[in-house]
Every structure is written in C-alpha cells, then in structure tokens.
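Let's practice the habit of predicting before peeking. Look at the sequence and jot down your guess about where helices and strands might fall. Then scroll down.
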Amino acid sequence: MSSLRARFEAYWDGSIDPSVEPPMFPVMAHEEVAERSLFVSSFANVTALRTDDGLVLVDAGGPLLGAQVHAAVRSWSDEPVRAVIYTHGHVDHVVGIERFEEEQRARGTGEFTVYAHENVTARFARYALTAGYNACINARQFQVEVAWPTSFREPDETYRDRRTLELGGEHVELHHARGETDDATWVWVPGRKLLCAGDLFIWAAPNAGNPQKVQRFAREWAVALRAMATLGAEVMLPGHGLPLYGRERIAQALTETAALLTHLHDETLARMNAGMRLDDIVHEVKAPPELLARPYLRPFYDEPEFIVRNVWRLYGGWWDGEPARLQPAPAVAVARELCALAGGAEAMAARAEMLAAAGELALASHLIEHAVLAAPGDAGIAAVRRNVYERRAQAATSLMARGIYTDAASGRRA
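Done guessing? Here is the structure:
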C-alpha cells in the first residue's frame, strides 16, 4: 500500500486523530495514484497525467511551493507538458505554471494549451484591480506576507458549462460548478476512473463562508458534489488534502459534504423567508454534529457560522435586518457614548477583562472594541485588547477565525 493511501486509510478508520493532524494540510509527497497518474501533495495539490502526447496537468501550484511541484513532476516524468487545466483561478493553483512555461521555452519543446472556465479571466482582472486588498486579507488569514501578483497566465481556451477534450488519446471531461468560486471546474477522466475535484472538496468543512472574500454558492456547490458522487470514481484527488480511494467511500464523502451545505443553506433560507434577522439566524442555525464529526468535514478552515452569513449575503444583501445598522453612527461615537454610560473606557475595558477571564470571549470582544475606540492611546486598554484576542485565537478551531484574531492581537484594527 502506498504511503498516501495508508494515510488516507488511517484517517478513515480513525487511527489518526484529525483534530491533532488536520488532513487538509499538505504532506509534501508525490505518488502514482492510478495508472500513469501522479498526485503531488502541496499547498494546493497538482495532478499530472501521462498521455500518448505528453503530460496533462490539473492545476500547476502556487507562488510559495511552485518549485516543489515542478521538481515532483519532473522526478516522475521528463515529457513535455501539452495541456494545463485550471480547476479555478485561485493564486495557489495557477501561478506555478510559470516554471513549466519557462522550462519548455528553454528546451524548445513547444507551448501548451491552458483550459479553464470562462470566469477565470474575469477573476484575474479583479485580482489585478484589488491586489492591495488581497495582499492584506491573505496576510491576515495565513499570517504570511506575500506579494500579490498582478499578472497571470490567461487560459487559451475557455468553456461555459461542459467540455470534452481528447488529449493524447485520453478522454477528459471538464464540468463547471459554482461553489467556493464562480469559475470552478471539476475534471473527470473516465478511462482511469479518476476524479479531480479541485477545491470543491478539501478535507474540511467547505470553504463556503470565508468572511473576507467574495460570494460563495452553497446550494450549487451541493449540486456539483452530488453529480460527482454518481460517477463511480475509484480515486478522487482534491484541491487540498489527501487522495480518496474506493467508489463507496468517495461517494459517501461527496454526498455528506453536500448534505452539510444543503442543511446550512436550507435552514438559513427558511428563516430568511420567515422574516428573521441575521443575528437570530446565525445563532440558531447549527450544522449537524454527526457530519462535523467526519474527518473530512471538521471546521479547520471555514466555519458553519460563516457559511450561514454567506447564504444571507447571497439572498439578502449587506443589511442584516437591524434598523440601527442601516445608516449607523460612526463606531467611535457609539463607543464614546457607551463608555460614558459605563463610567469610562477603563471601566469598559475592565469589564471586558472579567468576561474574557470567565470565557465569555465573544462578549468581551465587543466591549474591548468600544474601549479602544473611545481611548485609542491608552496602553492599558490596548493590553486588555491584546489579551482578549490572544485568547480568542487560541480557542478558534478554524484557520480563518484564528488568523483574524491573531491579527487583532497584534494591535491592528481591520
């Protein structure tokens, strides 16, 4: 048994505790997972298919580990790349293509064709327009300073709903879905019973709610997962995390991920249709605990609460239903008024400190934000704020929440 498959089996049977070793994190290994099919575990995974006419890559790696991806592929095959398929336009999946292009130009082995959904080009344009913002939010989310690119290798050929390619004697199907992104492609290679899911499956609760990024699509995501579950794939290669093996287990993972998304979507929408406000919905709609217990649905990256908020944003816009927040007073004015009523910013901070010590971290966060706004130069209040968010970061289960709280503990205000 290969090392990647053994690791998959250990997560599936419970031998590895996913809360100790989250399965969505890369193991930085590469192996053949099917005939003439290489899987490269990286920050964003890459698949290489050997065909009669050269290599087909599904994704190409990102800016940080592009060299590792390139070296892994080249340790397996020296054949020229003939096609690259983007599963979507996220930087960690596409920027690594530059190494392969430079190599082929230097070797004189010809150019390759890049295939993607038609919305990828619009994503690249938006990334160039919002490079500064993306640099800020990714530094906050991952706690790593990375220069955000402003130019990208555009696709040569795009499609809208579905496209079939014949590449080196291999039948390859491209299917569009709206899920984490509006430009997602899942790839089905029926001759190898091989499914490349991209970020539609990441060995964690789906990234359908990211609080700092653009709209996600929980309902359509679930539809795509259920379509993939009917294929009879024997190997599924996700955008992040380990390969999955076995027709029944792949179908289970896909359908249960769909069930989680459907539950959160439908329960949120039902309450919106009943006229409830966002605050009530967020605190009422919960994910089924039996689904969150699965090793591939733990909220390591995103959180069910964030998915609920994203469903609201899709259907309900930015207003949360609270009249005072439609045209609110400046936050600093509200903070000064509340601190005055509480007996001063120091009193507000002291109460926040007490709440934090009692484990009431969410409530403490509200109070300390008021205190800092009302007395921005007070070092003691700033120290309380740092303590509150250090506690919140330690308690956070998801990378997204932990990143934001860690950033707040550093003294910055978003």
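How did you do? The longest strand covers residues 170-177.
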